[in-house]
Amino acid sequence: MKLIKTVAILLVTVLSSGALSAKEQVATLAGGCFWCVEEAFEQLEGVREVVSGYTGGTEAHPTYQQVSSGSTGHTEAVQVYYDPDVISYAGLLQKFWRIMDPTDADGQFVDRGQQYRPEIFYHNDLQQQVAEASKQWLQQYGPFEQSIVVPVTPFSEFYRAEEYHQDYYKKNPLRYKFYTFNSGRYDFVERHWGETSGVDYQRFTNDNPGGMTQADSRYQVPAKARLKEQLTPMQYRVTQQDETEPPFDNAYWDNKASGIYVDVVSGEPLFSSADKYRSGTGWPSFTRPIRPDAVVRREDNSWFISRTEIRSRIADSHLGHVFADGPEPTGLRYCMNSAALEFIPLSVMKERGYDDYIADVTGKADSQN
Fold first, then answer.
1. Which residues of this protein are catalytic (predicted)?
2. Bond prior to 329 in cis (omega within 30° of 0)
3. Tens digits of per-residue pLDDT, 23-58?
């Protein structure tokens, strides 16, 4: 019995020190202040432990004071110990993109300098391939207009930070909350990603780092420069600059034809005519999107009021807002801008490749137009 207890104690000690268990893998990621990065990853299912530390520099066994001075070449980072049968490396990277600013190579939010630079440190060829593919996905489909500048670098050495830095958010909750809420990180994430707590990180696989379905891959998003050429000035201002078109003076506010409404940028399906109704507002209004995950909801506090903005999932186009004053069966009013939409008549849906959505037009109850 004494021997069993000794082995158990040793096992707990090894695991808590950041060593790998039998089937675990490790990811090393830098996204600014390691307190914040550690907390974010420890919420994920499949992650056993996250260790804060330093990597990417030349100084052996550096102290926090040395690293924070910016003289060691190290950056604050974390090592994530995870079960690849529960969450993939690609899933971890999707979380990573959603907690930091991948367009800023000189620090993160209020923390400036190379000691806070973002970086992905890969441990093997697979991690390198997945990281590069995920970064490419983010550049093409992510919510950022600027270039993604996070380096993908081979891992060399990781030095565990001082004990008071480990699980800082648990040990010092008040100080941690004060820091995070004033750092600008939360505001940045909300502005670019909206509510992300519902994202299923387990749907991202190493073979498909962006979680794109075969249908999603059909919908391409042109570069910003090309969009200015392809869209009308009003379409560009609405979809890319979050503006609102005038009511009663737009293409679809009184359209009664059967068909679907797709994103004018990407062509991804958004709404069905079967869910369209006359709201009296002068904008096309719907009781629901064509599929539950067709749109993304974000908090919008512009104009001194709190609203829920609606954006397309793939192109990230600004579409409009949703309000709780609509008719049954949902009680919602998805108030959209015609300039963000293209209407595909039922008669040409098959020809245009929208066969899978015909039932969403013909199989639902008659619209309230």
1. 33, 335
2. yes
3. 899 999 999 999 999 999 999 999 999 999 999 999
pLDDT digits (tens, 9 = 90+) for 162-196: 999 999 999 999 999 999 999 999 989 988 886 55
Tokens of 147: 């270039």
Rg of the chain over Cα atoms, rounded to whole angstroms, equals 24
Whether residues 199 and 224 share a domain: the answer is: no
- What is the share, in percent, of the chain residues with pLDDT greater than 90? 73
125-129 long-range contacts (CB < 8 A, ≥24 apart) are 126/89, 126/206, 127/27, 127/89, 128/152, 128/154
Residue 213 has pLDDT above 70, yes or no: no
pLDDT in tens, 109-159: 999 999 999 999 999 999 999 999 999 989 877 888 789 999 999 999 999
Distance CA 133, CA 150 (A): 13
Q: Which of 33, 36, 296, 341 is catalytic?
A: 33
SS3 165: helix
Q: Are 326 and 343 in contact (CB under 8 A)?
A: no
Instruction: Give the number of other CB atoms < 10 A from CB of residue 194.
Output: 20
Q: How far is CA 339 from CA 214, 224, 233, 321, in A?
A: 27, 17, 10, 14
| Sign of torsion over alpha carbons 347, 353, 355, 361 | negative
Clarify whether 335 is annotated catalytic.
yes
Nearest to 78 by CA among 23, 134, 116, 124: 116
The single residue of 335, 339, 341, 349 carrying the catalytic annotation is: 335
Residue 36 falls in the annotated catalytic set: no
Give the C-alpha separation, 150 to 25, whole Å: 22
Q: Which of residues 176, 203, 230 is at a domain's end?
A: 203
| 47-55, strands of its sheet edge to edge | 152-154, 119-122, 25-30, 75-82, 47-55, 158-160
Asked whether residue 241 falls in the same domain as residue 335, the answer is yes
